[in-house]
Amino acid sequence: MIFEKMEQSDYEQLVFCHDKTSGLRAIICIHDSTLGPALGGCRFWNYDTEEEAIVDVMRLAKGMTYKNAAAGLNLGGAKTVVMGDPKTDKSEAFFRALGRYINSLDGRYIIAEDVGTSVEDMDMIYQETPYVCGISESFGSGGNPSPMTALGVYYAMKRTAKEAFGNDTLEGKTVAVQGVGNVAYHMCKFLHEEGADLIVTDVNEEAIKCAVEDFNAKAVSIEDIYGVEADIFAPCALGGVLNDESIPKLKFKMICGSANNQLLDQDKHGKMLNERGIIYAPDFVVNSGGVINVSDELQGYNKERATQKVKGVYNQIGKILNIANEKNILPLEAAEHLAEERIEALLRVHGKFSSKANNQINK
Ligand code: NAD
Fold first, then answer.
1. Ligand 1 centroid – CA 179 distance (Å)
2. Which alpha helices (H) appear in 71-132, and where do they start and end?
3. Where does the UniProt annotation place the signal sequence (predicted)?
């Protein structure tokens, strides 16, 4: 049953990691390493069943293959899920045991933080393996990736605006922001500095207060954000917010935000937006600034170089919109095509013998 599922989407490897003393129960999934070492975060989640954890790690690992490929990174896609309660089950031994398993993969997989894990957890893994990103700045890393994710979203928004409005200036545009957390706060700062007007909502009163005070944003209720008069919608809180109920209310020309999996049903709701003349910038490319930033650590982190690479999200979105126009397909499909074509092309390149790449001659 598992091999059948692996075969369906050409998965490479599933690794079950167990440590009785610390209680570690983790699954590492490497989906595809054609482009390079497979990189993907570590999700710590209270899964009800092992099956649920396996399904999730496989889904997330495949998503990382597309994200890394579409971002133009020389990285494959993978993910780790840890079964347990992130509030009570963490310990030094727990993460160091996980670090040893990652080390045993000898660089095929590189871990980073995700939902339920932190920079401190990655630091413990770093005690056991160099194959970890998103560690503390004191170790020479880029630290919290959220400001870089925000920079990428901002550049993606500018390029999508060029498609929607004819030019990429956001001055005078109104942007409706759902959730003003880590990423969106920084994104709002960039937008405010360029002269955009902001309408915000959040379940956290304090987050709203900051946006209102710092960026002169107008606050609305959670339910009202979908129907506000604005040019751009930036979902930066949860997945699945673009659905049968919300889409008919939207008056925006384009959608570009940091949240993962914004479309509840990728095909159905992607088409619904298109029918309403709303351009949807593919979320996994829009929010790739974070992974672009952490992956710079693999070369020895350089903030200037990482910033330039993150700004490159503008051109990646441009490429995707051009493919969508040429092939008359949705931008999300175009992003998937771009990722698949890049993997296919490099797979063929790898088929050519090169003594250095194949490591046949020790010089
Ligand atoms: P965060 O938790 O700091 O911010 C999310 C905000 O949304 C919070 O302020 C929260 O109160 C608010 N929120 C929750 N439910 C809401 C609701 N129903 N309506 C309105 N607001 C609500 O998270 P973040 O790190 O800023 O990430 C935001 C999104 O971007 C997430 O979907 C995340 O997966 C995605 N993302 C983040 C990064 C990163 O670098 N942090 C990278 C890629 C993708």
1. 6
2. 92-104, 119-126
3. none
